[in-house]
Design a protein that fits this description.
The protein has 98 residues and is mainly β. The chain has 1 helix and 8 strands. Strands 1, 2, 3, 4, 5, 6, 7 and 8 form an 8-stranded antiparallel β-sheet that branches.
Length: 98
């Protein structure tokens, strides 16, 4: 298996907030996407979601409060917690979910 360069892969995706599933580990999925300043609407899930910023930065609104998540930082969103991404987020995001 050839190593995957995640940042390059995200740049090749067709549009903002278009993710690509890279692998599945049991019930968990590993997805990559690019952030290009666009906001993403509020959502919540019945499972925990891991958001790992590989490069750039994400302005994450989590349960009503905005936090800045930078390169190399992981935010675990608990099940049922409303979250969205604010305008101004750029870079590559890795998502771990089910």
């Amino acid at each position: 298996m050839t190593p995957i360069h995640l940042v390059d892969l995200a740049r090749e995706l067709p549009k903002v907030w278009s993710s690509r599933v890279l692998a599945q580990f049991g019930d968990a999925r590993l997805k990559v996407l690019r952030m290009d300043d666009a906001a993403y609407p509020e959502e919540s899930h019945d499972y925990a979601e891991g958001l790992l910023v590989l490069d750039g930065g994400m302005r994450l609104r989590l349960d009503g409060q905005v936090m800045c998540v930078g390169a190399g930082q992981l935010c675990v969103v608990p099940p049922g917690v409303p979250h969205s991404v604010e305008h101004g987020s750029r870079g590559t995001l890795l998502i771990l979910d089910t």
